[in-house]
Task: inverse folding
């Protein structure tokens, strides 16, 4: 069933499931806040926590989910870990969603 193609759209069941999983990441306001916070560049967890006024446990949990979804990437510098948007597509997805709700 994974390879089933939908007749009208040429989209496989697997692609539909992956797309649904991607959009689930945008269904949480904390994750959206984190993504917006990273629009201007990399930050460590402490900076993100300060910016969005949330505790480290909650932010770290959401960062893990965003990283698994390939929306956020991380790099280590000494003892610090810096997080940033995985690519420009993340900004595009959010911008398009924002534009849609403003219509």
Result:
């Amino acid at each position: 069933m994974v390879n089933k193609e939908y007749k009208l759209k040429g989209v496989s069941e697997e692609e539909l499931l992956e797309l649904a999983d991607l959009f689930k990441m945008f269904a949480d306001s904390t994750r959206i806040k984190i993504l917006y916070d990273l629009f201007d560049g990399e930050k460590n967890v402490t900076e993100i926590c300060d910016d969005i006024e949330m505790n480290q446990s909650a932010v770290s949990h959401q960062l893990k989910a965003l990283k698994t979804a390939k929306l956020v990437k991380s790099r280590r510098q000494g003892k610090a870990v810096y997080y940033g948007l995985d690519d420009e597509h993340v900004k595009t997805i959010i911008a398009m969603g924002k534009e849609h709700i403003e219509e």
Summary: Helices lie at 13-25, 29-37, 45-52, 56-68, 88-102. The two ends are 38 Å apart (CA to CA).
